[in-house]
Amino acid sequence: MTYEVLKVNVTEGIATVTISRPQALNALNTRFFQEMDSLIAEIGARNDIKVVVITGEGKAFVAGADIGEMVHKTKAEGAEFSKAGQKTLRSLEILDKPVIAAVNGFALGGGLELALACDFRVSSSKAKFGQPEVNLGVIPGYAATQRLPRLIGLGNALFILLTGEMIGAEEALRMGLVQKVVEPEELMPTVLGLAKTIASKGPKAVKLVKSVSRRGFLMDFEAGCALESETFGSLFENEAAEGMRAFLEKRPPKWQG
Ligand code: CO8
User: Fold this and answer.
1) Which of these, 10, 43, 58, 202, has the minimum number of CB atoms within 10 Å of its CB?
2) What's the mean pLDDT when you consider all of the chain?
C-alpha cells in the first residue's frame, strides 16, 4: 500500500511512524486507519523491525478523530467507525514488538486513545493531553473508557473523561499517563535511545515480556503467574541459555532472530 498519512522510516531495527496530516493536526480519518492496518501487518511480518515509535508531525501528536468525517454519521455508522478503530488499536496493542508513543504535542480524544494503545509514552514538556469528547456531546470510541481507568486508576480517568479539560505533561506524568517528560528537542533522541536499548535485548524475551504482561494484566493473579512460569520455562530451550552463558563467559550475547 502507498502511505499518504503515515511516513515510515526504518533504521537499525527501529520503525519510526510519523502521522503526517499537520494541516488538520493529524486528526485520524478513514485513510489513517486503512494505512495503519496495513502497516501493522507489514511490521508484524518483518523480522528486521524490533521496536516501533509513533509520533506526529508539527504541533500535534494527534488532535482526535477527524470531526469533519464523524459529524454526519448515523447511529449504525458511528458504532461501525468506533469498532473499526478499536480493532486497529487493539492490533497495535498486541503487536509482538514494543510500541513507544513519542508525544510531541496535542494528544486529544482519539489521539490520546492511540497513545494509550502503545506500550508506554514519552512526552514533550509542551504536550497537552485530554479526552474532550464530552465537549462535543459524545464519548470516546477507541476504548479510552476502558484503557484509561486500567492505566491510571478510575479517579484520574474520570477526572480526564468528565471534565474534557486538557492537562499538561507534568500532570500527565504525576498520574502515570506518561512515563517520562523531556524538553521538545530531546523527545526524539530520548525515544530513539530507549528504542535502541530495547532492540539490543534478547528478542524473544522482549516479545514475551510484552505479551505475558499484557495477557496477565487481564487475568487473575494465579493464572497470570502460571502463564509467566510456563513462558519462563520455554526460554530455557533457546535464548536464556545463550544470555546466561554469555554472562558467565564474560562476553556479549549473540542473539538469534
Ligand atoms: N478533527 C478535524 N480537524 C481538526 C481536529 C479534529 N479532531 N482538530 C483540529 N483540526 C483542524 C482544525 O479544524 C483546523 O483546521 P482549519 O485550519 O481548516 O480550520 C486545524 O486543524 C488547526 O486547528 P486549530 O486552528 O483549531 O488549532 P489551534 O492551535 O487553535 O487549536 C486545538 C488546537 C485546541 C487542538 C483545537 O484544534 C481543537 O480543539 N481540536 C479538536 C480537539 C478535539 O475535540 N478532539 C476530539 C475529537 S473527538 C474524538 O477524538 C473521538 C474519538 C473516538 C471516535 C470514535 C468513532 C465514532
Assistant:
1) 10
2) 96
